Every structure is written in C-alpha cells, then in structure tokens.
Amino acid sequence: MSTETLKQFHRLPQSTYIDALRFLPPLSAFDRYVVIASFNSDTDETSIGIHALNPTDAPTLTLQSSFPTSSRISSLKVAQKSLQNPLIAASTFAGSLHILFPNPIDASFESEVSIPEKTLHIGPISCVDLQENGSACVSVGEDGRVNLISVSDSGLDYRRVFDSKGLVSYTAARWASPTEFATGGLGNSLQWWDQRRPGGPVSQFKGNWAEGASSGVVHSIDIHPSRKHTCLAGGSYGSVFAWDLRRQQQPIILSGIGTNDTASNICISSSDVWEVQYDTFMSSSNRATANISSDRVLPVMMCSEDGILAVVKQGEEPTEILAENCAINSFDIDPQNPSDVICSLEWESVAILTRA
C-alpha cells in the first residue's frame, strides 16, 4: 500500500460530535466556508453551522451562523443555485427536510424552508441529494419511499416517485442528470431511475455477486458528471465498487469483497465504507486522468469506520492518506481546490489536509 504525501495536515478539536460536513460553494472570491452538522451529546442539541475557514499555516474554523434542528442530521448536501448563491439541504433522523439559503454578504442563514417530520418518510430520511443547480432534491428512506422535491425560495413541493411499502430499503441517492438519479440500499443493491420513464427503477443491480454481499448495505454513491453511465458505490465489508450501465451483469470491484472471477487482492479496509467520491485532484503523477479509457473507473476517495482515508484506483495498490484511531465518518473534497480535503473524525474533531 502506497502513502500519499501531505503538504499540510491539521486536526481541529471540536466541542461537539460532527455528523457531516461539506465545503460551501464560494460566496466570494476571497472567503472559504465549511458547513458542519453537529450534535452535542451533553445537551442533545443539534445544529447546522457555517464556519469560515482561515487556510493559514495554522488553519481555524470560525462559526459565522448556526441553525438549530430538532433531530440529528442524517444527510447533508450543498449546491450552487446561482453565482454566489449556494444552498444547503439537510435531512434528519426524525424525518424532516430543511433547505437553507446562506446570505452571500455575511454567511448568515438568510432564509429556510422545510418539510416537517413524517411527511416524506415514515421514520428517518436515509439520504438526500441536490441537483447541481439546486432546483430539485431527491430523498430516500429505509421505509422504501423515493421522493422528488422541487426547491424555491418560497417553499417546497414534493411528489412520491415510488413506495415499496418497506419491501425495499434505500440508504443512498445521487443525481446523474436533470432527469436521472441512482439509489442504493440493502443487499449492496443499486437502482437507476429516469423521470421520463415513471413507475419504478429502469435498471436494477442486485448484490448477489459475492459472499456476504447479500447482507451488505450501500452507504454512499457518487456519479462523475462526464461518465454518468458508471455508478460508484461504497458499503459494508470495505466494499468499493462500480456499476457500469453498459455492462450490468457484474460489478467492477475496486476494493473489498468480490467473486472468484472479479475479486482482486486489494482491500484497503474490512469495515464499513461510509463515503465515496470521485477524486478530482490531479497531481503531477496522474495528470493523464482525463485520458483514462471510459472502460476504466476514475480514481476514488473513500473513508471508513476503521479510520482509513484513501484513494483507490482500479487494478492498483490503494494510496493511504490518513490512518486514524477512530472512524472517519465523512469527508469532502474542495471543488475549487481539489488538493484540499476536510474530514469529520469520530473523536469530535475535524481534520483539514492539503495534498502535495
């Protein structure tokens, strides 16, 4: 296993547990902000905060504004509605959905629209995802419901796309285009949905391809904007795999479990992979990423329950970035500066790192 060189690494202790974090799309050319969903175990208070990131040799996170929620955050996403007008989507374990609009002048929460508990789902909302322009949101839950929510400053409208009545449970979702999105769930399963073809998923992938996969769970999905035919997934047993819609029978195993025909010896982690993202960082050693054949999966970053943050490339040894003594629950790659990564550590801290 190779190790990637870090230019800078800082661990910032926090007073609360970090449930999720995201880089906020830029409000100005000079400021950088991070959205953090936190939980105070002493008071049971939960909140979403916008923090100013001061990227000096000793970086700091300074709280600019905070929005309290009635329940812990189950999913956190951001999008760029328009120039200097990002928005934040947050779902809760109680089943509510909140859309927050930051003020571009002072990073305060200018307004908020929400859908109350027990409206979209029975029980927790497992995952939400915003379209790139923030005009629509998809929500999924273990109750088997899939909802589409239209977003505007004045309010939210939703419609139920599908309801399995609990026969299928969904745990992850990701937009692929203005009309298509993917979901993932129990059994390491994936589904592809097209709003132009209503009634249910247009393609399905069942996780019966490996020992233990039928009991696994997909925790995270990502889809590259230039290769929407390939759905990336991370889940139980250290599994990181891709589902190519052009060849749907077998997954492309990047790490973890696999069949005798598809498995490699690559296994960066044996625990749950909490999040996966395509790695947009182009170092001097992989400038040719843009020329990678469409038959190969682009480099992937993942984080795991056993404290691993790593980059995984198809058919190559993983590149370990961090190995912590606690779980790395979530991470985000700065779209404006892909060498910069933030992570939430289980031991109430945020890690900020810059790759060389």
UniProtKB/TrEMBL annotation:
Its main location: nucleus. The keyword Repeat applies. The keyword Repeat applies. InterPro entries: WD40/YVTN_repeat-like_dom_sf, WD40_repeat_dom_sf, WD40_rpt. It is found in: Nucleus. Keywords: Nucleus, Repeat, WD repeat. It comes from the Eukaryota. One of its GO terms (cellular component) is nuclear pore outer ring. This is Uncharacterized protein. It comes from Lactuca sativa.
